[in-house]
Amino acid sequence: MTVCQLSRNNGKGEMDMSRIRRLLYVFATCLLMFSLMLTAASAAVNPYPVDSSMYAYWDKYFADSGTKPAAPATPAAQVTTPGSYWDKYYGSNYGKYTGRTTTPTTPTTPTTPTNPTTPPVDQGSSVQSADEKMMLDLVNQERAKAGLPAFTVDTKLVELARMKSQDMYQNNYFSHTSPTYGSALDMEKKAGVSYRVMGAENIAKAATTQRAHDLFMNSEGHRTNIMNPMHTTIGIGIVKTPNGVVVTQLFTGK
Asked: With 60 as the cut, is the pLDDT of residue 40 above it?
């Protein structure tokens, strides 16, 4: 009896499970059909499917009324001249650093700059400057004290002496041998100067002409050139500078 009871109970359980499966199948079929119907209804109500979240928002609340906002117009492409953005903030000259093409202006011819520190020297003038005249008077006074004749002035030697002083100033050197003209004798020969005695030279850099003369007279070699009786002709060239004077004395003798 116990066994048979168990068998009947098993048969009843199998029937219940079969019914449940059929019900589940019917329910799933209905659910699928209902889902398809909802999808079709949604497509019919909203004929303008878009992915934008903005349209999804309006579809959610206004789908029944058929009201739909117009799609935003695509902004027209803004055509700007390259460099206009930078010009706005940095000025129109900034355009030269961009791809913008500008009409070039006609360049002006720059003037040749002058050197304000270089004093003008009239090397071709036979007229002595005030400082050159002063030094000539000073050396002739010294010669007169020693019973020597006064120097005569050779304008060619004056020109060469000015050139040598100017050369020392411009090329920033102090030497009896010029990188431009060579020695005093070389310079005189190239200029066509011809004397029996040639090549003697005194040079100085000083604050004033008087100070340069004092330096000459306190130096044995320079004093000897001034007081040499064989030297009868002189050329004095003085160039004024921001620091004083540059002096050259050239001596020759007949």
From this structure: yes
